[in-house]
Specification:
The protein is of the alpha/beta class. The protein has helices spanning 12-22, 39-48, 62-69, 80-87, 104-112, 122-138, 148-156, 190-193, 203-211, 213-225, 264-272, 286-289, 304-314, 318-335, 342-356, 367-389; strands spanning 2-7, 28-35, 53-56, 75-78, 93-96, 116-119, 143-145, 165-172, 233-237, 243-249, 254-258. The chain has three domains: 2-145, 3-Layer(aba) Sandwich (Rossmann fold); 150-289, no CATH class; 315-389, Rna Polymerase Sigma Factor, Chain: A. It has 16 helices and eleven strands. The site of magnesium ion has 4 residues, from helix 7. NADPH binds at residues 10-13, 36, 38, 121, 123, 202. Residues 259-379 form the DXP reductoisomerase C-terminal domain. This is 1-deoxy-D-xylulose 5-phosphate reductoisomerase.
Length: 390
């Protein structure tokens, strides 16, 4: 039996992970599940999977969690420290599926104890890529990408030499507004931005798909994880979301990964790696699909792509700035304080502010320094939001 934990178990990725694990309960010994507000889901999954411990991020909800787990033998805990602590409980495989920079410290803790880290939390690679990879190396373990594009790239690279890679192309659906007139984007509502044409995901990543901030994050994630230069990474709009990524080699060959838009593929690949096993995902009927469409991404519509390039050019801690400012701008949009197009303006302003502030971007990448830069970038983004909210 493999010992597994799921951080962010109540979310979209977490629930898809549980779906796979619950199909073969005899194969897994579940150590910890974590969540935040959805106590009923967290408790019922912890009981169903016979987890040792269930942890909520919200300390105020500990009594509710205790109540929901009463008599089950599952331990209850709460708070950010408890989440990081549960990631240090020995496990062979840990799913990192918390949303946002809150996933960084628990992910590092999982790597420090030598667990294989299945990484959906792209924010931790964007804000601390070298720290994550260095921690994995130092502890003799590995990170397996769970973002669909990065799983696709990883699979296309099996048996290949990185030195023969010319370019990596990641696909983008274009999100909710790919066909909207640009001048209407400022009026996009929260509801409109929260529905994705192809993927069923958490609200934050769905809005990030509409603004292309998700793809911008994924470009940085590709740069960090595969150690490839920014100039070798391309984004192509592919409305069907069936090709997830392509790797281009020195001989001109392109290896594409094709599959249905179902995260259980990338999760299952990471769960069974290095084996491939049966997964309950749709088998594509290419004749009925007919065509794959592609378009060049428009940087006027999606300034996030330019900001990602500038982040990689700046290097150092700029990824932490980019991520924190993006999270803050997204909070501002969800709260109705800024409009859809102002999110990119806020991120750009926070990046400019942080580059002008001495020493932060070039600081050594430690967890404390990343959290400090994250904090300052959130303040800078808040100021940019306030100046717009009048
Ligand atoms: P979600 O919003 O559905 O779930 C997020 C999870 O994190 C929940 O369990 C929630 O309780 C928990 N959480 C939220 N705030 C927290 C905090 N402060 N501390 C601890 N836990 C907290 O999100 P999701 O769509 O499942 O995405 C999770 C991660 O996976 C994100 O990093 C996202 O970018 C990435 N990802 C998601 C998809 C997808 O299809 N949903 C695809 C690729 C990558
Ligand atoms: Mg993705």
């Amino acid at each position: 039996m493999r010992k597994v934990s799921i951080l962010g178990a109540t979310g979209s990725i977490g629930q898809n992970t549980i779906d796979l694990i619950a199909r073969a309960p005899q194969d897994y010994d579940v150590v910890a599940l974590t969540g935040a507000n959805n106590i009923a889901q967290l408790a019922s999954d912890a009981i169903k999977l016979k987890a040792d411990v269930a942890v909520t991020a919200d300390e105020a909800l500990l009594p509710d969690l205790r109540d929901a787990l009463k008599g089950s033998g599952v331990e209850a805990a709460a708070g950010a420290t408890a989440i990081t602590e549960c990631a240090t409980r020995p496990a062979d495989w840990i799913m990192s599926a918390i949303v946002g920079a809150a996933g960084l410290a628990p992910g590092l803790a999982a790597l420090e104890q030598g667990s294989t880290l299945a990484l959906a939390n792209k924010e931790s690679l964007v804000c601390a890529g070298s720290l994550m990879l260095e921690t994995a190396r130092a502890n003799g373990t590995r990170i397996l990408p769970v973002d669909s594009e990065h799983s696709a790239i990883f699979q296309a690279l099996i048996g290949e030499q990185m030195s023969a890679v010319e370019r990596i192309i990641i696909t983008a659906s274009g999100g909710a507004f790919r066909d909207w007139p640009i001048e209407e984007l400022a009026g996009a509502t929260l509801d409109q931005a929260s529905s994705h044409p192809n993927w069923d995901m958490g609200q934050r990543i769905t809005i990030d798909s509409a603004s292309m901030f998700n793809k911008a994050m994924e470009v940085i994630e590709t740069h960090e994880f595969f150690d490839i230069s920014a100039s070798q990474i391309e984004v192509i709009v592919h409305p069907q979301s069936l090709i997830h990524a392509l790797v281009g080699f020195a001989d001109g060959a392109l290896m594409a990964h094709v599959g249905p838009p179902d995260m259980r593929h990338a999760i299952g690949f990471a769960l069974h790696y290095p084996d491939r096993r049966h997964l309950p995902v749709e088998r594509l009927d290419l004749a009925s699909i007919g065509t794959f469409d592609f378009r060049a991404p428009d940087e006027q519509r999606w300034p996030a792509l330019r900001l990602a390039r500038e982040t990689m050019e700046a290097g150092g801690m700029m990824g932490a700035v980019f991520n924190a400012a993006k999270e803050t701008a997204l909070d501002g949009f969800i709260a109705g304080t800024i409009n859809f197009v102002q999110m990119a303006e806020v991120v750009e302003q926070a990046m400019a502010h942080m580059s002008a502030s001495d020493g932060h971007i070039d600081a050594t990448m430690t967890l404390d320094n990343v959290l400090e830069v994250d904090h300052l970038a959130r303040k800078a983004a808040q100021a940019a939001i306030h100046s717009r909210a009048g």
